[in-house]
Design brief:
Number of helices: 6
Oligomer: single chain
Distance between the termini: 48 Å
Helix content: 10-25%
Shape: globular
Structural class: alpha+beta
Order of helices and strands: EEEEEEEEEEEEEEEEEEHEEEHHHHH
Strand content: 25-35%
Length: 382
């Protein structure tokens, strides 16, 4: 039976995970202390289990209440887990729920998956999405383009133990700074949207302290210049956005070279596609600088803003893109001459020509949902 009434500030996730690196399987024991801040009385709870949109990844062993009794009335429909409550949960009350499950990580370059060079754990745990009165749970199916998950602020306590790790050192990039004891990594991520990890035997790490924030850039040795360039861009962007948008709320930020394309943001960790690292030559006129400035901006747009990325993508993507303009104007200088001038004379002119005018964007509306686009380019253009 659920036990309501514990006083907590916000929902809290406690995750104990064991990664078998040889078999690429993750065993998770998760405790959710859920605070009902919906303004509604709830008799049913929705959890997002995003891994289950792909068959064969997720196996749920047990769902139980705080007293150890099994939660028997639940159903799994794609990436949604519906759980009936034995007693209504009043607004402002909380309950404790425990889940035990395994993930057979897929062999794919993705936010959840692995290659021989990196293992990515993004959206790997069950979580309760935001609830909007009049709309209901902000939980959506994947679209053809864009991000579709919405996250409430929550507190995270994560323990990761890696077994069967083989020879050599594994480097762990995470949304928060680790406390390490041998093979055990502990993390605390407070008032955050989510928690993500990336593990590799081949990462080189480049670090810099910026206004009390520990920045770390993770990249492969053959693109070390790009790893350093991504760090420099992140440092300049963090200083600028702190001044323009308000202080970054965490004590660390990880920038990770990914083997899946483009960029992807998590709270405290961003991925940048490996294609942007190749050929990096500095000087600002390159996609690595653009995408790094863009992904760092997502720590505000959606991170601090907490927007609905599926229905209102303009609140994160359009503002992050506009942040690129501000970055070039204020970091490089709008009137500063370019070292390479094939299509423009200044960094500001170059950005508009390279990022916007080349594509001649004419179709679509900035306020559309992600489900109104059939392919990537019209979505970006809008």
């Amino acid at each position: 039976m659920p036990q309501a009434g514990e006083s907590i500030e916000r929902t809290k996730y406690q995750l104990q995970a064991v990664l078998d690196f040889a078999s690429q399987t993750l065993t998770v024991s998760e405790t959710i202390r859920y605070l009902n801040a919906t303004g509604q009385v709830l008799d049913r709870l929705l959890l997002v289990v995003d891994a289950n949109w792909t068959p064969g990844i997720l196996t749920i062993d047990r769902i139980s209440w705080q007293d150890g009794s099994l939660a028997e009335s639940w159903s799994l429909e794609g990436g949604f887990l519906f759980l009936d409550l034995a007693e209504p949960l009043q607004d402002g009350e909380s309950l404790v729920l425990a889940l035990d499950y395994e993930l057979a990580l897929p062999a794919r370059p993705a936010r959840l998956g692995f290659t021989f060079r990196q293992t990515n754990l993004g959206d790997w745990y069950a979580f309760v999405p935001p609830y909007r009165p009049g709309t209901g749970w902000l939980a959506y199916r994947p679209g053809l383009v864009g991000e579709y998950l919405a996250y409430d602020l929550a507190d995270y306590e994560v323990e990761l133990r890696i077994i069967n790790r083989g020879e050599g050192e594994l480097v762990v990039a995470a949304s928060a700074l680790p406390e390490r004891a041998g093979d055990l990594h502990r993390f605390r991520h407070t008032a955050a949207r989510n928690f993500s990890l990336s593990i590799s035997p081949q990462y080189q790490v480049f670090r810099q302290q910026v206004e009390g924030v520990q920045l770390a850039s993770y990249a492969y040795a053959e693109v070390a210049a790009g790893g350093q360039g991504a760090l420099q861009t992140a440092a300049a962007a963090l200083e600028l956005y702190n001044r323009l948008f308000g202080p970054y709320p965490h004590d660390s930020l990880s920038i990770v070279q990914s083997e899946f394309p483009d960029g992807l943001e998590y709270d405290g960790l961003v991925y940048i596609g490996q294609e942007y690292y190749w050929g990096y030559a500095g000087a600002g006129q390159n996609l690595l600088t653009i995408i790094a400035a863009h992904e760092i901006a997502h720590q505000w747009w959606y991170g601090l803003l907490g927007s609905d990325q599926a229905v209102e993508p303009w609140l994160d993507e359009a503002f992050a893109t506009y942040s690129e303009v501000l970055f070039y104007e204020q970091v490089y200088g709008a009137s500063q001459p370019l070292p390479v001038t094939p299509v423009a004379d200044t960094f500001d002119d170059w950005w508009w020509s390279f990022r916007v005018e080349f594509y001649e964007p004419q179709d679509g509306f900035v306020g559309d949902t992600i489900y109104q686009y059939g392919s990537f380019r019209p979505y970006i253009n809008a």
